[in-house]
Amino acid sequence: MPHTLVCLQVNMQFLGSYLCDLPIRCTIVLYLVNSIGCKPQITYVPRRNGSYYMNGNIFCLKCPAGNFVKKDCVISYTQGICKMCNPGENYSEHETGLNSCLTCTKCRADQEEISPCNITKNTVCQCKKGTYCPTNSTSNQCLPCRSSCPAVQVLQQTCNSTSDNVCVPVTPYPTVYILVPFVILVVTTLIICVWFFCRKCGDGLIWLPKIFTKCLIHEEDDSEKDAKEKFLQQENKLYMRNDIAKDDVITRTCSIFVDLVPSRVFEKFVLELGLTKSVTNFIKEDFRATEEQHYAMLFQLSRKEFDVNIWLSKLAFIKLDNVAQEISTRLIEDKLFERSI
């Protein structure tokens, strides 16, 4: 008597969590399914999405920390070819789907190395003794600690790698004694502004709104505007060297930007370059390490259009001229780019 076999779809997420905990049990289940002539349609849903990255429409298993993806997988939920980072040269701190390791940071001349770079951890640098770099600084330069406190103050905290000597008054003053001189200074400044501009314009109090605008709001002068555009001027442009492969130049350039652009303004920087907020959020979910997130953002930008001069001009636009200059010098010293002759 003929009969009809009904083939059910097998959900591998359920099968993997319940039936396939043991290889023998999973083999028995698949044997029973195949023995009745049923070809199951397998739908696999990874339980640890953070362990995978997207290669087109394919889910590839990330390489372990200390490695990079030399070749992407071609079958979903498998791992491609991983290769170990070069000790002392580059690293990957967490599981990664990047096609290269991150370049180890080189301590500057005003810094000292407190922890060397290995394949799973970047170099740790700090300012040398007697200097410091504030954690909220945009220049990343080490500054000399103040030699002593003023006569009316005493040392509360000694200078360290991230903070200058902290001085406090010898005796705490009541708040009123501090507030009154400040109020007097502000009122005096406003009176001087009103007197000067009213005297200059000769139209009395009708100019008060403009007076306060000019006194209290900083207007950017032409020299500041010129500074923002200096990296797009012909004589300052950088040109990629012809004796190095373009992919290698892009990889090393991205690493230098990740190393030198302050983390707190990095997302603002890539958004200025045209990366959308949704893409940055997707990258943050896909990579745990901050350095890997920043590298992936720049690599995404470089795939569309790569012009290091535009990247440098955007740094100048967000008032990081000194960082842009430091990166320019580094790109030339590493023989990746050269200036026009």
Structure characterization notes:
The protein is an alpha+beta fold. Helix content is 39%, strand content 16%. It has a three-stranded mixed sheet with strand order 3-4-6, with no helix packed on it. The protein has a two-stranded parallel ribbon with strand order 1-2. Strand 10 and strand 11 form a beta hairpin.
Briefly, what is this?
By secondary structure, the chain is of the alpha+beta class. It contains 11 helices and 17 strands. Strand 14 (153-157) and strand 15 form a beta hairpin.
Work out the strand percent.
15-25%
Instruction: Report the C-alpha radius of gyration, rounded.
Output: 30 Å
Poorly predicted runs of 5 or more residues: 1-34, 38-47, 200-221
Mean pLDDT score, rounded?
Answer: 77
> Rough shape?
elongated
- How many strands in all? 17
Spatial order of the strands in the main sheet? 3-4-6
- Give the end-to-end Cα distance, rounded to a whole number of Å: 90 Å
Biggest sheet, in brief? 3 strands, mixed
- Structural class call reads alpha+beta
Number of helices: 11
The succession of helices and strands, N to C, reads: EHHEEEEEEEEEEEEEEHHHEHHHHHHE
Helical residue percent? 25-40%
Considering the chains and any ligands shown, give keywords for the structure.
16% strand, 341 residues, two-stranded parallel sheet, alpha+beta, 17 strands, disordered N terminus
